[in-house]
Amino acid sequence: MVELSVEVAGLRLRNPVVVASGVLGVSVGLMKRAEDAGAGAVTSKTVTLNPREGYPNPVVYELDYGLVNSMGLPNPGAEEMGRILREARRVLGIPVIASIGASTPDEALRIAEALEGFDALELNASCPHVKGLGADLMSDPDAVYGIVSALKSSGYRVFLKLSPHGDYLAVARKAYSAGVDGFTAINTAKAMVIDVYARKPVLGGVVGGLSGRAIHPIAVRVVYELHREFPEVPVIGTGGVEGWVEAVELILAGASAVGVGTALKRGFEVIGEILGGIERYLRDEGFPSVESIVGLAHK
Amino acid sequence: MGYTRARVAEVLDLAPSVKMYILELSRPFGSQPGQYVMVWLPGVGEFPVSVAGEKGGALRLVVARKGRATGYMHERVAEGGYVFVRGPLGRGFRLDARKALLVGGGYGAAPLLYLAERLSGAGATVHAVLGFRSREHALLVEDFRRVAGEVWVATEDGSEGFKGTAVDLFERVFPGGGYDAVYTCGKELMMEKVVRRAVEAGVRVQASLERIIKCGVGVCGACALEPLGLRVCSDGPVFDGETLLSLEDFGRYWRDHSGRRVPLPP
Questions:
Q1: Which compartments does it reside in (chain A) (predicted)?
Q2: Beta-strand runs (E) in A14-91
Q3: Does domain B99-263 have CATH number 3.40.50.80?
Q4: B1 to A62: CB separation less than 8 angstroms, yes or no
Q5: Does domain B4-89 have CATH number 2.40.30.10?
Q6: pLDDT above 70: residue A43
Q7: Residue A18 belongs to some domain of the structure
Q8: What is the predicted ipTM?
């Protein structure tokens, strides 16, 4: 019997598969379906202090090798998300990570205070298509330092979600010095789709974020670099996990857990397929646990 | 899945604020009744529309003017123009009825017309109850008459057919009709009554739900129904009656653009 459970920044997960932010929206029912399908933890959709409607349609474009989206962080705001997360806490047995979008320490604290029923916060420093939030933080390591410090000194467990753009290691260093508990890497990559017959950008937000298979090797590189520089900081490796091979690859690169997002387009069953594959791999290769292979590619 | 550019072959005024568009597809969608497509007007927006028919490379869509993009379509997209379509999306109606009663309200009649054609083509007996505000708002009635054995029309002001709602008329014809399936599409409060009545009578019933659809492929959660986490865009839009009655949201809540659950619009 191989051990699938992992500890990530003090959170005990029954297995390393985490539902990434953004794909479940704000539905407790969908989070429950993910739990029933086997997920080890779920991440909420990014919540901002005030409600946001997001961009007008089209908001997604499907490619053979990924998905481009410009949802624009639609969410009902911190107060309503607090109610949703309390309900999630009542219904779910697995840890819930609350993704938050903030641009100042004060804003982040106000969001965190309005939420309850989460086990960790994930600061979204990397949404590629919303101004003033997300990706803009990637170019402002000092702002990240301020927000992470404020959240840490208020006693929260904090993950920082990094983008593959810019000097993400500089941002990670600042977050590390502020006491960040873990990294999530990576968010989507800035991308754009133009329909050649319409001769116009497809997405309502014009620029979107590329996810799925296409960005997997980028995620492996970023996770590898993070683990090399901060070997003691856990990473939730996210990006193009379509099956168990990509999941194991990210774990070997240094991820303690793996995020699954775009692959859920194929159905909740992919969670079980990924878990089954990881388990078979560990057994066949003679490893006792997931934790025994974290970062093995560095050795 | 990218967009298919489709030429507008024909535009028909069906009722105030409701038009029918016949689109020429470069490839057949192979859509099933109850499925929908997303119509993209470049630079304007994108909206979901139930398929009202597909035959020989022609897609029939009934578009009600509701917002910016549908308003633009009504005003600016004419015969010979182009729109962009992705689909078909979602799960449609099960087509295993032998004697079916279709209950449509307003432009909800559109997907039921496609269903009526398919059911009757498969040898089923099809009856339809169609409810409208007034004679002026009645649509597709003659099309239904061509494929359905019986078509009963209700108008709220009595200007055509039975005076009352589709539900009032349904309550009259349903008992004793010997139907083995009921299909409904229209205002959710109407469908809720039809579904409840059919389930109580032990007759299989399916309803097509309307929600704000964003991604259309089941990843964003904008159209999730609680507490089961069913997505209207990909698990639906058609659901069976027992499933609908087990939801907190059916007939009560929908989600606004931010994802917040709010009372169903009247």
A1: Cytoplasm
A2: 17-19, 41-43, 60-63, 66-69
A3: yes
A4: yes
A5: yes
A6: yes
A7: yes
A8: 0.92
